[in-house]
UniProtKB/TrEMBL annotation:
Protein's organism: Candidatus Accumulibacter phosphatis
Protein name per the record: Pyruvate kinase C-terminal domain-containing protein
SUPFAM superfamilies per UniProt: PK C-terminal domain-like
Coiled coil: none
Superkingdom assignment: Bacteria
Length: 171
């Protein structure tokens, strides 16, 4: 938990033991206690910067910082691979994160990422990524008219996972 894990699972004896409900309850208490002070832990980009895209981590960090400073209603992450939402979630923002994708497989993976609500882009969706993300967040009840949102995304291009932009928009 202190390293920023997204999900916990039972294994071996704890999954089939005599006290499964109590085991899950205890795991939940430990997780909630550890998450009570997320700012005391190291920055996730410091751990992964040597092996991943430093620009993407910096943009995710800046997005969360701006979102918290401005008290936005939600952080919207249109994503092809899920990496944008993963990076944003690593900073444990106080507001909800929407992982928005056309891929059910990507959204399935995002179901296990801390704080991310996966939202499927319908087949008949608008080509305007920003308008589409806001419409999905509104439909999911994450934002209302007049709210500020942060939209974190990658520029158009062939390489998925190249998070390089953040916009703050009033809904």
């Amino acid at each position: 938990m202190l390293d920023g894990t997204d999900a916990l699972m039972l294994s071996e004896e704890t999954a089939v033991g005599l006290f499964p409900c109590e085991t899950v309850r205890m795991m939940s208490e430990v997780a909630e206690s550890a998450e009570g002070s997320p700012r005391e832990h190291g920055h996730p980009e410091a751990i992964t910067a040597a092996i991943t895209d430093r620009v993407a981590w910096a943009v995710a960090h800046a997005a969360v910082q701006a979102a918290e400073d401005l008290k936005v209603a939600a952080i919207l992450c249109p994503t092809r691979s899920g990496l944008t939402a993963h990076r944003v979630a690593a900073f444990r923002p106080k507001m909800p994160i929407a992982g928005i994708s056309t891929s059910p497989q990507v959204l399935g993976g995002l179901c296990l990422v801390w704080g991310v609500q996966p939202l499927l882009v319908p087949d008949n969706a608008d080509a305007d990524q920003l308008r589409q993300a806001i419409a999905l967040a509104r439909a999911a009840g994450l934002v209302r008219d007049g709210d500020l949102v942060a939209v974190v995304f990658g520029s158009t291009g062939p390489r998925a996972g190249s998070t390089d932009s953040v916009r703050i928009v009033r809904v």
